Amino acid sequence: AVLDEGMTFENVTMTSEDAQLLESRQFSVIEICRLFGVPPHKIHDLSNAHFANIEQSELAYRSDTLLPIGVQMREERNRVLLWDDEQGRLEIDVDYDELLRADKLTRYQTYQIGLNNGIINRNEARIDDGRAPVADGDTFRVPLNTGAPGATPDPPLGAGQGKPPAPS
User: What is the four-CA torsion angle of 63, 69, 72, 76, rounded to 10 degrees?
Assistant: First the structure.
């Protein structure tokens, strides 16, 4: 290269030593994650991250790393903090619900399935979503097509109100 007026040449390419240093740092990140059982995206290494594998990594992180720690914590706290007579009827537990919280659409679809199949009631869904319970929210919905064969289903709520029952 011909340089005029006192200009100097600066190399803009990376030397092989620099490239090897960066590669060894990347390997160190993966090794640290492996040592502690943490997925790489948790420490912001997104080099091999995609939406599908991050979701699976989160599930694996919960079941392989956090649950065993939670079991140890629960057992130790139950042993140390509860009296002998309390250990049969009380239990200290670790709640992972916040870690499993899905996006709003998936969460509401889950509530809908639970509500429509009589698994949860409206107040349970509202409390899980961080909302206050409502006065008539403790009733469970049960689909009419899941009743016992030959049984007469209960009338819908509000049906026949205001009319006295017919004399028999």
Answer: -140
Taking only the tens of pLDDT, the chain with its 168 residues reads 677 787 887 777 878 888 888 888 888 888 988 898 888 888 888 887 777 778 788 888 888 888 999 999 999 999 999 999 998 889 888 888 777 777 788 889 999 999 998 899 999 999 988 899 999 999 988 777 766 666 666 666 655 555 555 665
Q: Give CA torsion, residues 52, 57, 63, 67, to 10 deg.
A: -130
Residue 85 burial (CB < 10 Å; 0-12/13-18/19+)?
exposed
pTM: 0.54
The answer for residues whose C-beta is within 8 angstroms of residue 102's C-beta and 6 or more apart is: 110
